[in-house]
Amino acid sequence: MVLVLGSTVGLWSCANVPDRSLGLTDFRQRVVAVAEREWRHFGRHQRGRVRRNGYRENEPRQAARIRRYWQKGVGRTVESPRVAWSGAFISYVMKAAGAGRRFVYSGSHSPYIRRSIGAARTGDGGASFTGHRLRDFSPRPGDLVCNALVDGVDYDNLPRYWSGHCDVVVAVRRGSIDVIGGNLSDTVGKRTLMTDRRGRLLPHQPRRIDPSVKRWFVIIETRI
């Protein structure tokens, strides 16, 4: 079985009646729709079940799009597309989807990861985003999956800032999920990550799928 949203066009085109059989709220559908729209804008770059090259960050049209991520998502002016922009991409997706003040917008992933894990630790039932250990939660479309790109960072050891990465879950099937993230091979890319038989994300992915990531360690559940 595959949980995946249908084709969407435009920013709010997915704000129709959500498919309740999948348990996807309007907000989750908007998150997926925005991420997929940006992926299409960058030429549908993909690694995993399908391999396809997209447009790169240094092309004028794409560089302008990245500046938009910084301006609209983070409230900063960053002219160079060479500045790491994966956090700005996630912030843009969440803001465009309508998260409002419920998300921590940042050019770095660490602030909103720390907030979500803090909500889980304190048992904050009203939190809009909750960070779960990989073994405790099966991601669904509209959630975020996150990793650390440096040693010594995991669910129980969170410095104030560190180098990491998060992707938006856009589809779930038996044994794998599809995710979309920014600044993957200098583009907005989609990739397939492996899960176990319960749908839990594997902390260490095969190198053919994920050659640069050291460890996945948290699923951020969207509760809007």
Write the layout of secondary structure elements.
Blueprint: E1 2-4, H1 26-41, E2 45-47, H2 60-74, H3 86-97, H4 110-122, E3 129-132, E4 144-148, E5 164-173, E6 176-184, E7 187-194, E8 215-222
Parallel strand pairs: 2-7
Antiparallel strand pairs: 1-5, 3-8, 4-5, 4-8, 5-6, 6-7
Verbal overview:
There is one protein chain. With 224 residues, the chain is of the alpha+beta class. Strands 1, 2, 3, 4, 5, 6, 7 and 8 form an eight-stranded mixed sheet that branches. Mean pLDDT is 89; it is low at 6-21. The protein has helices at 26-41, 60-74, 86-97, 110-122, and strands at residues 2-4, 45-47, 129-132, 144-148, 164-173, 176-184, 187-194, 215-222. It has four helices and eight strands; from the N terminus they run E-H-E-H-H-H-E-E-E-E-E-E. It is globular.
**Count of helical stretches:** 4
What's the mean pLDDT score?
A: 89
Q: Report the uncertain regions.
A: 6-21
Number of strands: 8
Provide the domain count: 1
**What distance lies between the first and last C-alpha atoms, to the nearest angstrom?**
24 Å
Major β-sheet profile: 8 strands, mixed
Structural class: alpha+beta
Q: What fraction of residues sit in β-strands? A: 15-25%
Q: Helix proportion of residues, in percent?
A: 25-40%
Q: Specify the overall morphology.
A: globular
Rg measurement, Å: 16 Å
Topology order in helix (H) and strand (E) letters: EHEHHHEEEEEE
